[in-house]
Amino acid sequence: MTLWHLSRAIVETARISIPTVAESAVGRVSSDVCDRRLDAWSRRLLEQAQIDLSVHGLERAPADEAFVVMSNHQSLYDIPVVFQALERRVRMVAKEELFRVPVWGRAMRASGFVDVDRKNRERAIQSLARAKTALARGTSIWIAPEGTRSATGTLLPFKKGGFHLALDTGARILPITIVGTRDVLLARGWTVHPGGPVQLHVHAPVDPTEYGMEQKERLIAAVRERIASMLPPALR
């Protein structure tokens, strides 16, 4: 099953990446077309893994509001799950290494995904500026504040970049909790276990303006508490 799922994921990714790269080369990339491709890609990946996805609390996120979305991160399947669950235009902030993947990386950049290079302050500032522009245009920006997938499933310490973005723009933070993707595919794992239930819980948004930069640590704690609240106690 592992080889089959891997090969299908590569095919599905190529299916949306190649035309996106081609369109970007002639300046014809459309956000609406990218949205449709991402929706089809994520839906097919969940279908192939036979994931039974249930979404709770989506009514807490007004459809006409752009958020800084923050979630726990346990598996590569978190990515298609979020795109299927939130029913809005979402783009990720992702590690710079992902943008080096041939074709896929160029397609991500052309589609409006934001790369972050934590080793280069100037490039990190440029990435933050691109994320601000996307928010201003109505695109929600999804960040995993742990910075990486948790190998054990336990919620890791949060990095501050996403909170700076919310504080700088005033965009509300939408905390979400993803449960079950780790049972489908472990972090750093290669074996896909199809047919598992996955839940995504949408929490009440957090307004960063109620905290301000001087209370940033309280803001981080508030968001972390909401994300942790729907995790099993051993993973909080």
Written overview of the protein:
The chain has a seven-stranded mixed beta sheet, sandwiched between helices. It is α/β, with parallel strands linked by helices and 236 residues long. The mean pLDDT is 91. Helix content is 42%, strand content 15%. It contains eight helices and seven strands. The chain has one domain: Glycerol-3-phosphate (1)-acyltransferase (3-Layer(aba) Sandwich), CATH 3.40.1130. The protein is globular. The two termini are 31 Å apart.
Secondary structure layout:
Blueprint lengths: L1 H24 L5 H18 L3 E5 L11 E4 L6 H8 L4 E6 L8 H8 L2 E3 L4 H16 L3 E4 L17 H9 L3 E7 L1 H4 L12 E6 L13 H13 L8
Parallel strand pairs: 1-7, 2-5, 2-6, 3-4, 3-5
Antiparallel strand pairs: 6-7
Helix pairs in contact: 1-2, 1-4, 2-3, 5-6
Beta-strand proportion: 5-15%
- Percent of residues in helices comes to 40-55%
| Secondary-structure arrangement, i.e. CATH architecture | 3-Layer(aba) Sandwich
What's the pLDDT, averaged over the residues? 91
Topology as a string of helices (H) and strands (E): HHEEHEHEHEHEHEH
Q: Quote the CATH topology.
A: Glycerol-3-phosphate (1)-acyltransferase
Distance between the termini: 31 Å
What is the overall silhouette?
A: globular
In DSSP terms (H or I, runs of 4 or more residues), the helix count works out at: 8
User: Can you summarize the main beta sheet?
Assistant: 7 strands, mixed
